User: What shape does this take?
Amino acid sequence: MAQPASALPPRGPATGPTGRIIATASVAVTSAFAGGALLTQTVIVPHWREMDPAAFLSEFASSGPATGATVFPFEVASVLLLSMTTYSTVTNRRPGRLAWALATTCMVGTFVLLPIYFLGANLAMLDPAFPPRAVHAELTSWYRWNWIRTGLGLASAVLSCIALTASRRENATTSR
Assistant: This one.
């Protein structure tokens, strides 16, 4: 006779103490990404938009890739760690699985926006032939797209915190 899923031992890469570490790390890197995206959106991009277009293109040549190189590893780590945690919690029918799944979906959404918009836009503005007269329109578009990315990152951070809290509550009640 088959045992109910809750009676089976947990399985998957993100179970037990290792699973708790992975889940906590996923919240940390997701929150770091969300914070970086929010900082970019509320401080860096407004500064870029106030600049003379030619000066912006010169600054973007160094600060654009540096910003991406800083934030991108957190985005990749977040997607990987959230995916592992979601897989484990869904497979083992643990509390918080819906919030983990939604957090993962939001972070995958930030990742999908890279080839949809950001890669092409960033490469265009890094091209020395990019016309300064086109900077205002491109930064207006970039700003709008980045609010979507920032919102998804923030939603993922909140959802992953909710999920981690739900899983910690289960651990507290089962360890009594």
